[in-house]
Design brief:
about 230 residues; alpha/beta; Rossmann fold; 2 domains; three-stranded antiparallel β-sheet
């Protein structure tokens, strides 16, 4: 069980963007991190990864796979050179990682692009590259920030299948997304954020006020409750 305790964090000391963020990521579960733009999702993720300038709290994460919201690529590296660099730095068995990377490239239909430069790929193909790089090593945690952005329907289906596979291996997965319809179908639990704080968290059934209530309606009602001073 991965536990996250963030007392406060932000980009300038003394000016926190998020406060009192506490949640757990159980092994074998996909947890959806949802909230409007500016809710604090990205700040929470950066705090977890140790890349935020100002942080107070307690987070114990050794290694993780990460898919950023916007692809990060080296201009003069081919797809395979990106993969090779990753494999050489993670400290896991190289041959197994090469086979896994090739399988992921095939799954996302990139097997004929290994010697091309991802900087020139379409946005959706660059997103697939990020997924290949994040999912190749074996980690206890995978952090996916808007992973469906730019993907075609077949790639979305394949990613959902892979998420289920990695859950079956015991990995914990945190997914920040605005695709609430998809998240409602595949997530085991949710963390609902607004204005730098957690409004509510739990499984879909625990968040619903009535049977069958859609996740979008749940979130809208939570925001309305804050606005009206109910929460």
């Amino acid at each position: 069980m991965i536990s996250i305790h963030i007392k406060e964090a932000g980009y300038t000391q003394g000016k926190p963007v998020i406060n009192n963020i506490e949640f757990s990521l159980p092994p074998g579960q996909l947890i959806g991190l949802i909230g409007a733009n500016g809710a604090g999702k990205s700040t929470t993720i950066q705090s977890m990864m140790g890349t935020i300038p100002y942080f107070q709290g307690d987070i114990q994460i050794d290694t993780y796979g990460y898919v950023p919201e916007r692809p990060i690529l080296y201009e003069y590296y081919t797809l395979w050179e990106h993969i090779d660099l990753l494999i050489r730095t993670v400290g896991q068995e190289e041959n197994e990682l090469k086979q896994q990377a090739k399988a992921l490239c095939k799954a996302f239909r990139l097997e004929d692009k290994l010697h091309d430069y991802p900087i020139h790929f379409s946005k959706g193909m660059q997103q697939k590259v990020m997924l290949v790089l994040a999912l190749t090593p074996i980690y206890e945690l995978y952090i996916l920030d808007e992973p469906f952005m730019g993907l075609d329907p077949q790639a979305i289906r394949k990613l959902i299948e892979l998420i289920e596979d990695y859950k079956g291996r015991g990995a914990a997965i945190l997914m920040s997304t605005h695709a609430l319809d998809t998240a409602e179908k595949i997530c085991d639990g949710f963390i609902c954020m607004h204005d730098g704080a957690i409004l509510k968290q739990g499984a879909l059934q625990a968040l619903q006020q009535y049977e069958g209530q859609p996740l979008l309606d749940i979130f809208d009602e939570l925001i309305a409750g804050v606005t009206d001073g109910i929460i």
